[in-house]
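Page 42, continued from yesterday. The earlier attempt failed because a stray header line got pasted into the input along with the sequence. Redoing it now with the clean sequence only.
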Amino acid sequence: MVGSWRGLSLKLEDKLYWVRFLAGIVMGVLTAVFKLYQPTILVGVITLILVYVVSAMILKAVLSEDARAKLGRKLYLSGAAAYVAMWLITLVFVFNIMLQA
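This time it went through. Structure tokens are written below.
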């Protein structure tokens, strides 16, 4: 069947990208709901960075040596921009929804 997602096999780097993409959305929602932008957005940014660093450390511990060697720097950089962008977009979106409620 054309266009079917069955049998689609994502590379490890692609999976890492999409997980970070979704994590950015989750962090954006959490930042807005728990108001981590108060008293300054710096609190939210520091939380965002800490979650990213901890997730990279967990991935490094969980992945096999071969997988880590194959990924190289991509283990740390793949999806980083998407993570930050989705955090910011989601934060603004949820903040405005909460502001209207």
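Notes: The radius of gyration is 16 Å.
Reminder to self: strip header lines before submitting.
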